[in-house]
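Per your request, structure below.
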């Protein structure tokens, strides 16, 4: 079984951070930002060292642009909290985690057992991930 390292934020209200991607660079003390669909996460790359939280909004189930934002940030070295917010459903959890999300604030609560099952369904992966799990080929061929 895979040891999951994630947090659900149902105990913490999700509020839109005052800082958007467009205005983040002009803020001197901002440590969190919210990425909306259509925002370019690459604009945050010069500021990764000062970011503690990046929220990525998923306004609907079919909008997958947030996956790309997460992957881009993790591959660039972002190590802070990466939180998926909005229309986050149990069948997306394993894919969100693979892209590097470690925190989730869904619009509707998810059953904890269903979430645990989703995170542990595929302990081995074939492609490189943003969550640190080695791909099967690297286990085989070192």
């Amino acid at each position: 079984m895979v040891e999951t390292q994630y947090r659900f934020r149902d105990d913490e209200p999700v509020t839109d951070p005052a800082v958007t991607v467009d205005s983040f660079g002009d803020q001197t003390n901002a440590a969190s930002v919210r990425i909306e669909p259509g925002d370019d996460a690459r604009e945050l790359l010069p500021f990764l060292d000062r970011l503690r939280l990046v929220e990525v909004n998923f306004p609907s189930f079919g909008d997958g642009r947030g996956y790309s934002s997460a992957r881009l940030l993790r591959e660039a070295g972002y190590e802070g909290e990466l939180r998926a917010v909005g229309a986050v459903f149990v069948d997306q959890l394993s894919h969100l985690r693979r892209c590097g999300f470690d925190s989730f604030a869904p619009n509707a609560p998810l059953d904890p057992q269903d979430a645990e099952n989703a995170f542990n369904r595929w302990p081995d992966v074939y492609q490189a991930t943003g969550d640190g799990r080695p791909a099967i080929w690297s286990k085989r061929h070192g």
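The chain has five helices and five strands.

Regards,
D.
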